[in-house]
Design goal:
Blueprint lengths: L2 H11 L13 H14 L3 E5 L3 H12 L5 H13 L21 E7 L4 E7 L5 H11 L4 E3 H10 L10 H12 L15 E6 L5 E7 L20 E4 L3 E7 L1 H6 L2 H10 L4 H15 L8 E7 L4 E5 L5 E6 L2 E6 L6
Parallel strand pairs: 3-4
Antiparallel strand pairs: 1-5, 1-11, 2-3, 2-6, 5-6, 7-8, 8-9, 9-10, 11-12
The structure holds glycine.
């Protein structure tokens, strides 16, 4: 770690939120925003990556009219799932190495209610199926053919999720024997969203087409409660993006929430779990993971291994993009 990073980490330990955002917000502005949040438990929604802004805009319409955090996160991420231009989520997601688009998603409320689907084919909104699993079944997780059968029985429509654009990229990949995934492009897979509503309820949603060109049958962190997402109204919520294997190995999102339970700020909690990932891997080259955390008072934080992890924040003050601080510049 560079000395610059150490200096920044020390600064962040003194801060309720960690944000350095040369291209977006200043740290002061975001800290002020965090203080305002904690004063009144105002609604807030935060989402990973630039496409998180589209999710937030829809989610905020719900939150700002006294809607629930659960509806906000579900309807918000559905926008991204349905957008064929986003090649890491839902319709138009990059396929596995055999050409299949397989989707993973989970949703969770702060009272412990949760639902999940994994290895789901042919249904573009897996988050809505995950919510149905939560609300309509005695189970938490359905996978593969079982998840699809359930979705069809619930009225979801089957469609071809492999767009021409993603098929072309897949065919190009097949031609390259020396291919290596591109960090922050093929690894910046997940739309993860956390929200706090006016009633003080937290919820989160996490949905992805997973790592590009993954092995057939591979499932990442995104549908796994505790790895890709964890929400507890007593404390706060956290979600992850990046290489799922590294997130699963550390029970990443649950661990961030547990760090907050022990008194760490959202930012400090994200840093602690990224440090754990660092200790568990021989090299972090090409390994990106980012966390978002939101506590029950509406304070938030973010941190990633490598730079360029952006996230969207929406409150009464409007919609802004920010850049998470990172372990490596
Ligand atoms: N974070 C999504 C995945 O690894 O599948």
């Amino acid at each position: 770690m560079t000395s610059k990073n150490w200096i920044r980490r020390d600064f962040l330990k003194l801060s309720t939120s960690l944000v350095t955002a040369p291209a977006f917000l200043s740290a002061c502005e975001t800290n002020a925003q965090n203080s305002a949040q904690s004063a009144g438990r105002k609604p807030i929604i935060i989402s990973t990556w630039n496409h998180g802004l589209d999710a937030n805009k829809v989610g905020w319409e719900i939150l700002s009219t006294s809607g629930s955090a659960l509806d906000a996160v579900e309807k918000g991420v559905m926008v991204v799932e349905s957008d064929p231009k986003v090649q890491t989520v839902g319709l138009g997601g990059f396929p596995d190495r055999e050409g299949n688009v397989t989707l993973d998603a989970c949703i969770m409320k702060g009272d412990g209610g949760c639902g999940s689907v994994a290895f789901l084919k042919g249904i573009k909104n897996p988050i809505a199926v995950a919510r149905k699993v939560m609300e309509e079944t005695p189970h938490i997780m359905l996978v593969g053919d079982g998840a699809k059968k359930f979705a069809l029985a619930q009225g979801f429509k089957e469609e071809n999720l492999l767009t021409e654009a993603s098929k072309k990229r897949y065919e190009e990949w097949l031609q390259k024997a020396d291919y290596k995934p591109q960090i922050n492009i093929e690894n910046h897979d997940t739309i993860s969203t956390l929200a706090l509503d006016a009633a003080g309820n937290l919820a989160g949603a996490c949905t992805t087409s997973g790592a590009a060109w993954k092995m057939y049958g591979r499932v990442g962190d995104s549908p796994l409660i505790a790895a890709g997402l964890f929400v507890d109204d007593e404390v706060g919520a956290a979600c992850a993006t990046g290489l799922g294997e590294a997130v699963i190995r550390t029970a990443g999102s649950a661990m961030v929430v547990e760090m907050m339970r022990q008194g760490k700020s959202p930012s400090e909690a994200c840093i602690e779990v990224v440090e754990r990932i660092r200790r568990k891997h021989k090299t972090l080259k090409d390994l990106q993971v980012g966390f978002l955390a939101l506590n029950k008072d509406g304070n938030f934080g973010a941190y990633s291994i490598h730079k360029d992890f952006t996230y969207a924040v929406s409150t009464d003050d409007g919609h802004v993009m920010d850049m998470a601080p990172s372990l490596f510049e």
